[in-house]
Amino acid sequence: xxxxxxxxxxxxxxxxxxxxxxxxxxxxxxxxxxxxxxxxxxxxxxxxxxxxxxxxxxxxxxxxxxxxxxxxxxxxxxxxxxxxxxxxxxxxxxxxxxxxxxxxxxxxxxxxxxxxxxxxxxxxxxxxxxxxxxxxxxxxxxxxxxxxxxxxxxxxxxxxxxxxxxxxxxxxxxxxxxxxxxxxxxxxxxxxxxxxxxxxxxxxxxxxxxxxxxxxxxxxxxxxxxxxxxxxxxxxxxxxxxxxxxxxxxxxxxxxxxxxxxxxxxxxxxxxxxxxxxxxxxxxxxxxxxxxxxxxxxxxxxxxxxxxxxxxxxxxxxxxx
Length: 321
Prior knowledge:
Elements: H1 3-14, E1 23-29, E2 34-37, H2 39-45, H3 49-52, H4 57-60, H5 66-79, E3 83-85, E4 111-119, E5 125-134, H6 136-157, H7 167-184, E6 189-195, H8 198-205, H9 207-224, E7 230-235, E8 238-243, H10 248-264, E9 267-269, E10 272-274, E11 278-284, H11 292-308, E12 314-316
Parallel strand pairs: 11-12
Antiparallel strand pairs: 1-2, 1-5, 3-4, 4-5, 6-8, 6-11, 7-8, 9-10
Catalytic activity: 2 GTP = 3',3'-c-di-GMP + 2 diphosphate
GO molecular function: diguanylate cyclase activity
GO biological process, one term: negative regulation of bacterial-type flagellum-dependent cell motility
């Protein structure tokens, strides 16, 4: 038996104490050949030590990203320092099924890995040990917490009926954009929009029909705007659109798109087919505004003029310099 093989055998005996622990242990040499493979690795991979001994790890596990993993391993050989791989960086190093009852929802085992240099008697690093930890419980708990936090954020930011931003969140974004304008003088447009005679819809068809109209309009507003814009339900049947980096002239194309989509819309509730129109007020941010409330007020004035002049139209107001 060669000195190298004897040293591996001795190390295998020393690590036999880990066989009953829930930790995977494997050793790689500089040619990325597997020199040790403990019971944890056997149980989860289905491969015995004799199946992998002296075999190239990339040949036995072709799903390993070669360049990425070599970089990790080579840095341990070169720097003689331990290295770590967390499930946040990569969900798993070896694709093992998760068999834990509590974590049955996870198709694969989430893993953390520690790469340790194994110095020879001469001090040269010829092999490294890799410890594999099953952290599926931790990963799923973290993901569930992040999902719950995301849902809470969504609930705090959106209107429950329409799925658009609620008034509080939307107005905070308007404040942010107004502050940005004060620094950069980059144009943005504001549209206030109101469903014409919405009370008649509720009175004639019922509140469920009114809700259906609100949802339909919300869908249209999302379709007519960009993901960078902020579309919110301002209150009742009134909506507000903040078009980031858009002049009033360019915003008129958005208005036309909204009008086209609404004209083609048909809202079916029970045996009824409902059509509706909207009135809009448009204005662009301007140096004359001292606060974001003044910006909203002018857009509201434009909306009021649209209603006064017969509804189903848009009015543009330009501040006096």
